[in-house]
Structure formats: C-alpha cells, structure tokens
Amino acid sequence: MQLYQHGTLANLVPGLFGGTLSIHDLLQHGDTGIGTLSGLDGELIILNGTVFQVNAKGDVRVVDGSEMVPFANVHHADFTPVGELTAVNDAALRERLAQQLISLNVFSSVKLTGTFANVTTRAVAGQKRPYPTLKATAEAQSVFTQAEMHGTIIGYYSPKLFAGVAAPGFHLHFLSDDQQFGGHLLHADVTQANLEIQAFEDLDLHLPLADPEFQALDLDSDQIVSDIELAEK
C-alpha cells in the first residue's frame, strides 16, 4: 500500500505556496486525501475521487481538475474497519486514534465517520505574491464551529522521524455529510463514529523539481519543524 505526497510541509514554511501539480494529475495517484490549493487557498478534502475545497469564508465547493496544489496527500482507499468510538472528547481523540495504529513508525491514514457533538475547523485565505510565511498565514486563519455534525474526519498520521516532510503526528481534515461545512480539524468531540485505518508500506514523495523557487529554497533550518507544528495545531 502506497501513500503519495506532492511537495512537503517544509516547502510551505517560507512561503512556497505556488501550485506545482494539477488536481487531475494528483488524482492519478489516489481517490482519498487532503491538501491545499495554490496560494494556500483553503483546505482540501478528497473523498471517493471528489475534491472539495473549504475556503476562508467557510464555503465548500467541488474543485476543478485544472486547479493546482503546492502540497497534498492522496492514496487509493483500502481501509480496514477497526471499531467504533463512542463519547470520546477532543482531549482524548488523538491518543485513542494512535492506540489503534499498527505502528507509530509508519505512515497511516485514518477515517472516522459518524456523529460529532462539536467540530471546530479552520481555513486560510488564498495568498498573493509575494507570499508571506506559513506562520503568518496561520495567525490570520478563519475558524468555524458547529454542533451536532454528521460527517467524516480524514487524514494522516506521520512518524516524528519524517518531521519536515509532513507534520509529525496527526494531520486531519473534516467534511460534513451535507458538504456544507469542513476544513482543517482543530477540535472534535465524538458522539459515535466508525474508525477505519490504512497503513502504508511505501511513501511516494513527489517534489516540484522543475520549479525554480523550489530549486533555490534553503530548508536547512531547525525552525522549519517548529513552524510546521505551530501552523498545524
């Protein structure tokens, strides 16, 4: 089983937000995943081969295949059901998810579908050149909260060893069943939801080699990982 990733989160830290892969090409590598559009424009949730964007106004739309991403994860869904979570608050959620992983040393995808007492998400507004840093955009994000939501949490667990390539730990997005609410997950209290997990033997990391900005980027900094962790909280 393989996880495909275009770009790295480290690329985004200094502001490398320009799209370098089309949605059409991204979907050749999977039907499920998460990401963001060119300019760091909103949050992407990919389910059953359809790509949804949640923008900074909280609006949800289906994304066209010609649109571009600077960063995304996708895989072909082949989840294994592992059980039901009932009455799990946000403080305990990620620990409960981690307990169900095959190993903390491998990339995995988690999918949690059901009813949530409270969900808080965020989305960043699309940025214009010259792009700001990832930290600066995180400080200006829009935050949305809804109660009694039916929907899906989808995302990935990344081992700490790969910090910089991805956000260490869980990187999760949410989409409601009515496709009217979603974004990068900040908080979720689970009422009842079915948990599925998919572990990956292989990571296919695709880098934007033809992009001159990427070629010139200096990512040799200890600050990179701390800025990623701050932006992804």
From TrEMBL:
<dbReference type="GO" id="GO:0047605">
    <property type="term" value="F:acetolactate decarboxylase activity"/>
</dbReference>
<keyword id="KW-0456">Lyase</keyword>
<dbReference type="Pfam" id="PF03306">
    <property type="entry name" value="AAL_decarboxy"/>
</dbReference>
<comment type="pathway">
    <text>Polyol metabolism; (R,R)-butane-2,3-diol biosynthesis; (R,R)-butane-2,3-diol from pyruvate: step 2/3.</text>
</comment>
<comment type="similarity">
    <text>Belongs to the alpha-acetolactate decarboxylase family.</text>
</comment>
<keyword id="KW-0005">Acetoin biosynthesis</keyword>
<dbReference type="InterPro" id="IPR018247">
    <property type="entry name" value="EF_Hand_1_Ca_BS"/>
</dbReference>
<keyword id="KW-0210">Decarboxylase</keyword>
<dbReference type="InterPro" id="IPR005128">
    <property type="entry name" value="Acetolactate_a_deCO2ase"/>
</dbReference>
<dbReference type="GO" id="GO:0045151">
    <property type="term" value="P:acetoin biosynthetic process"/>
</dbReference>
<protein>
    <recommendedName>
        <fullName>Alpha-acetolactate decarboxylase</fullName>
        <ecNumber>4.1.1.5</ecNumber>
    </recommendedName>
</protein>
